């Protein structure tokens, strides 16, 4: 059974940082491509960042330069480090396996003073 479990969300002030984690079970993690998505209130879910099995990364323009996706194959975990957070980064952040279309339950990120 494939499971994705996110953690690390919370309330942070503008300009602050958060690191989101997603631990995956039920797959051969080191072969998996992994995504972080987010969905803000009233908006569609959007792809934020992707990391390939080989470590190649891609980002949506709105987070490029402020966020870093990384993976630890020994821990079956993918991370999203977010810096210089803005109120418009407020959303539920989801971990996603594109090859099998599995989703995590999401973790709330709120950027507010």
Question: How is this structure best described in words?
Answer:
The protein has strands spanning 3-7, 10-12, 18-25, 34-39, 46-51, 57-59, 67-72, 77-82, 91-97, 102-103, 107-111. The chain is mainly β and 113 residues long. The strands form two sheets. Strands 2, 4, 5, 6, 9, 10 and 11 form a seven-stranded mixed sheet that branches. The model has no long low-confidence stretch (mean pLDDT 97).
Distance between the termini: 40 Å
Number of helices: 0
Radius of gyration, in angstroms, nearest whole number: 13 Å
Give the overall silhouette: globular
Strand elements, count: 11
Brief overview, please?
The chain has strands at residues 3-7, 10-12, 18-25, 34-39, 46-51, 57-59, 67-72, 77-82, 91-97, 102-103, 107-111.
Topology:
Layout: E1 3-7, E2 10-12, E3 18-25, E4 34-39, E5 46-51, E6 57-59, E7 67-72, E8 77-82, E9 91-97, E10 102-103, E11 107-111
Parallel strand pairs: 2-11
Antiparallel strand pairs: 1-3, 3-8, 4-5, 4-9, 5-6, 7-8, 9-10, 9-11
């Amino acid at each position: 059974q494939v499971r994705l479990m996110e953690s690390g969300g919370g309330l942070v002030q503008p300009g602050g940082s958060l690191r989101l984690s997603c631990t995956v079970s039920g797959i051969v993690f080191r072969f998996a491509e992994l995504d972080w998505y987010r969905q803000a209130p009233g908006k569609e879910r959007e792809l934020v960042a992707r990391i390939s099995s080989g470590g190649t990364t891609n980002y949506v323009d709105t987070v490029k330069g402020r966020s870093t996706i990384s993976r630890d194959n020994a821990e079956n975990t993918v991370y999203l480090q977010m810096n210089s957070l803005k109120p418009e980064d407020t959303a539920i952040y989801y971990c996603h396996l594109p090859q099998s279309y599995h989703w995590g339950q999401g973790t709330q990120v709120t950027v507010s003073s």
